[in-house]
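#random but structural
TW: two for the price of one
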Amino acid sequence: IPLTKDIIASASSWDRTIKIWNVNTYKEIQTLREDFAVCSLLKLKNKNEMVAGGLGQSVSFWNTITFKKEHTVECCECRSYNGLIELPNGCVAVSGGWSSTIDVIDTKTYQRIKQIQCEGYIVSGIGCSSLHLLSNGTFIYSRNGCFCQISSTTYEVLYKDKKEKEFRGTAMTSTSDGKYIIAD
């Protein structure tokens, strides 16, 4: 993910590190040590902070100037892959990955303020989940063939759909006209 126009961060997953790189010199600036396998990174828009999620039961908030870990927030069964998004209200949504939950964390207080329960069509196996913010301020949660559209203000499920059993829907993006594309 880009942190500035010259610096990017990359998740190194199983070695529990985040690498900081200079894009002009192609050299590593720093290695940040994490307590879990890092699978997701998110740079907050109006703060000098980056959020890290992965195979653990917490997410970490890192200062993008000092590269020091500032906060750790415990999340119930948080195993986020591509499930970190910044919501319009100053919160971060974290997918539960193998669980069927989304945790909403306030980035001012660093407290979990909501846990949303979503169902999955497939109940066994690895249930990687995905989150994506849509242009209308709602967000989509995809897990094991179940897709939920959720309000980013009330956190209510606005729409729910189940696909055929084989479709896992682990990656998604949205288009400019408000539609979304989900890949298996």
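TW: number two ↓
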Amino acid sequence: MFAASAEHTRHEITLLLRLLRPTGRADLDWPPMAHWDWRGFARACDHHDVAPFIYYHLEGLAGKTDPPGLLEHLRARFLEISGRNYHLAQKLVELTSLLEEHRIPVLAYKGPTLAMVAYGDLAFRSYSDLDLVIRPEHLVKAAGV
């Protein structure tokens, strides 16, 4: 593994930012494989919760050469995160439907809602819980439901 240095960190962040742009470029400036360990870049993707989006973006770039192992790591994270996200989104639909059946107004925010608004896909934004807004006068009834 390479020594942690400002140059490598800066390069990883620069690559990450380039890949987060709406229009990507196929001529990514990956460092020479002999001098760079892609795992630092993968950790940056995980740390910033963008691994699914980066995976999708790299998969869509034509004529690019990815560091060996990077795409496999990102694909595994994509599958893990998207599976959890779709499960939570299903639970959100069930929960909001149940609350509405009991005439409890509810507003979902962040989580699946933000993923759909910001990315148009549940898989691209990592979340691990569901956030709901319920009026104070409905809290006791909602807790009972």
